[in-house]
Each structure stands twice: as C-alpha cells, then as structure tokens.
Design goal:
Elements: E1 3-8, H1 16-29, E2 35-40, H2 47-50, H3 60-64, E3 75-77, E4 80-83, H4 98-103, E5 111-116, H5 122-130, E6 133-138, H6 142-157, E7 162-170, H7 179-186, E8 190-195, H8 199-205, H9 210-213, H10 218-231, H11 239-244, H12 250-259, H13 262-265
This protein binds adenosine-5'-triphosphate and magnesium ion.
Magnesium ion binds near residues 17 and 46.
Length: about 270
Amino acid sequence: MAKVIGIIAIKGGVGKTTISASLASTLHNEYKKKVLLVDANYSAPNLGLHMDIVSPNKTIHDVLTGKARIWSAIHTKFGVDVIPGSYTFQGNLNVLKLKDRIKKLNSSYDFIIIDSSPTLNEEILSTMLASDNLFVVSTPDYPTLSCSLRAAKLAKQRGKPISGILLNKIRNPKYEINLKEIEEATGIPVVAKIPDDKNNVAALFMRIPTTIYSKNSRFSKEISKFAAALVGVKERRSLLGMLLGANFKKEQVNRQLLKEGFYNSQILNNDES
Ligand SMILES: Nc1ncnc2c1ncn2[C@@H]1O[C@H](COP(=O)(O)OP(=O)(O)OP(=O)(O)O)[C@@H](O)[C@H]1O
Ligand SMILES: [Mg+2]
C-alpha cells in the first residue's frame, strides 16, 4: 500500500512544487521506489512545468470531473508517474474527490506525493484529507511562520496533524528565525533544512527536478536525507561529518524519529487550538 504524503503550505512560492518534484524523483531514482506525483494545486497548477510535461493529454481536472479514468492521466517522466493539472481548466470541480480517486492506485505505488494548493479553502483540504502524512513547507521568516501555524491548526482540526516542517530557502541564518524558535512556536519538528540553492533556477528553466539536474547540490543532499527517513533507511552522512565525528543536528534527530514512525503515532500538541 502506498504511503500518501501531502506537501502543503498556506503561502505561495515557498517551494511546495519544487520539493514535491525533487522528492518524488529522489524516491524513485535513488531509493528505487514506485512513485506517483499528483498536482493538487487546482487553480494554479504548474507541477508539469517542473516535470517536463508542457501539454498534458489528460489531467487531474479531467479525472475529478469524470471525463477521464485516473490511469489515462498518468504521464511518466524521470521514472516518476505524474498526474499533472490543466493550465486552462474553467468550470466547477469537486476537489474533495481526490482521496477517493487515488485510492484506486494505492496498491500500485510505494509513495503518492501530493503537491498542494496554498489556498485556504477546499483546495488545501483536498490534500489534507487524501494524505496519510502531511509536511508543511515554510521559509524562515515571520509572515510565513504565521501561515504555517494556521496550516498546523487546520490540519489538527481535521485530524491530520503535520508530521514535520520542511524549512526551505535558508539564506542568511543571521537574519532568519532558527529551528528552535520555529519548533517552539509551532510544536512541529523541523525534519529538513533546505538551503536557498541557485541550481533551482536552472533546473526549473530546463523543466528538470533539481535533484536530477544537480544530484550533488546542497539542496539535493537535504532532500535525499528526508527521503531516506520516509523510506526507512539510514541517511548518508557527509564524509567530513563522519571524519570529524560531528554531533547529530536537531533535524537529523527529528528525521531519525520520523523514520522510526514516532511522528505518525503522535498527535503533536499545538497550543493554538
Ligand atoms: N531551496 C530553494 N532555493 C532556491 N530557489 C527555490 C528553492 N525552493 C524553491 N525555489 C524557487 O522558488 C520559486 C517558487 O517555488 P515553487 O513554485 O516550488 O513554490 P510553491 O510553494 O509551489 O508555489 P505555489 O504556491 O505558487 O504553487 C521557484 O522559482 C523555485 O525555483
Ligand atoms: Mg506550487
């Protein structure tokens, strides 16, 4: 049975699609998993542009309106099965059917990754309800952190607590909120600290997931470590880290707990509720 992972945020542009595309590619290409990647950003889909699917024949919109069977909307790219969105769809869509539609594919995959919409309505609920585990993407600034708190609250209300924060676009830690402050404010463990990496600009321009465009970039290495925790294998440590016998960082400890299933069974307390 597939593990369904929702990548969410109530803020646009934080990196949900970038991370979803790279995570899916890494799970397949590095960890040999069978992965389905779904665009659930129904109003502004663009996962196809990260996965080199420029004019999809059938889309998640066709599936949800009943115009296409789900199998016919699958496009295989970089070893990953992708259900892209329609760039031109107009009309009504029952997005809450997503859970039911992907259920049919559960036995065919190890992972189903859902790239969420940032819109705080049924669009984000569609991902929340369809997922087994939710990860919220946040950047290390106060406006985004306040959105992450709202996402955590909504997820908890829906009985789907967030399993971890993916802290993205870390640039200048001197002027950014640190891991400890973020964990204290949200009550959610940070499971990846992803640097701002200019390889993303080139990868997006070429419509290639960043982890394939630049496998050894700092961005890709952090995605690989997060993917290892989801798969349940030991993450690769840098040679320097091993030689120096460096202490484990907090996010590494969090990933270890994630790997052991700790966060799946815990309802994390968020005092906001
Ligand atoms: N770690 C990173 N380093 C540098 N650039 C990044 C990083 N992560 C994402 N980006 C860039 O940020 C921009 C927005 O990323 P992305 O489209 O993935 O965000 P999103 O959260 O999916 O946005 P939306 O809510 O609009 O769907 C893109 O140009 C992407 O290349
Ligand atoms: Mg997106």
